[in-house]
Amino acid sequence: MAKQLVDQNDHLSITVVIISFNSKSTSMITSLTLASNKQIRYEIIYGGDQQPTELKATDSHIQSLKPHVRDAVSKLVDPTRPDSPRLAGFVVDMYCTSMIDVANKFGVPTYLFYTSNAGFLGLLLHIQFMYDADDTYDMSELEDSDAELVVLSLTCPYPLKCLPYIFKSKEWLSFFVTQARRFRETKGILVNTVPELEPQALKFLSSGDTPRVYPVGPLLHLKNEARDDSVDKKQSEILQWLDEQPPRSVVFLCFGSMGGFSEDQAREIAVALERSGHRFLWSLRRASPNIMKEPPGEFTNLEEILPEGFLDRTEERGKVIGWAPQVAVMEKPAIGGFVFHGGWDSTLGGLWFGVP
């Protein structure tokens, strides 16, 4: 997004403040710092070696970093320097809304960069409005209800039992309601979406009851970056196999960085894939025992968890892998369908590559 903005305005410069939680893994940060130029530069703030995993701890930790961000910005716009730029405003992400307080200290507006979609943003703001209007509001009691919620940002009523987990968990709900309240304090919200994709949601968000919304998408990370030599070798094997398959013949299953499955779930998917008769590439990972504290991992022995003989019977037409180079896979002509977790980046990626 920063690159698009500076490409359209020669007088604009952008400093991206990065909070690093791991002093030992600096390769990504070093590469960004080396990529700094007159219009886009990177400021690193060290947030400690241990990244918080609990919601309240994460929020408190970000709060504690406000003085560091303030100091970094003060140095950037030091009036004693002849080349000091004029501070125009702050852009914060969904989890750093406490930095609005820092922007207020400098007397500049704050904009929110919302990386999910406009429909979900409208739903979140609607839930927050309902929550604040009713002190006894409790979504967990409505989980088995047949009632529907009329949300103006969505084209049809939303079944309450289908609400995401974050609205049924008291801890998550409280956290996101607090975030949504702060969203309303911003001057504008930049949403990674396209007007033609979500006209109903953008119409609602432009009604005047919320900060002005700017659709700035599709913003996609189309560079595929292998993580090390062993990953690079596996990636080459996967891509070579795809090159050998007929056009639009392979179903790609990939469920995001947080998507893992139990052994029972993995077996059910395997049965479905075998019965379908289609070629497939399946990125399969083990469910995390606590997704807030650790990401999904790899299964150590696929033969033990998949149906007996599955790998042998599907050897000619399918591959079961761990981590997947999603962008590199999606752009291959062999991919004819995409089964995924509903993540917004993956949704935009599927549209971008024309994969249903």
TrEMBL record:
Keywords on record: Glycosyltransferase, Transferase
Matching Pfam families: UDPGT
Record's keyword annotation contains Glycosyltransferase: yes
Keyword DNA-binding: no
Family annotation (InterPro entries): UDP-glycosyltransf_plant (IPR050481), UDP_glucos_trans (IPR002213)
Annotated SUPFAM superfamilies: UDP-Glycosyltransferase/glycogen phosphorylase
Similarity section: Belongs to the UDP-glycosyltransferase family.
Protein's name in the database: UDP-glycosyltransferase 71B6-like
Gene source species: Camelina sativa (False flax)
Lineage: Eukaryota, Viridiplantae, Streptophyta, Embryophyta, Tracheophyta
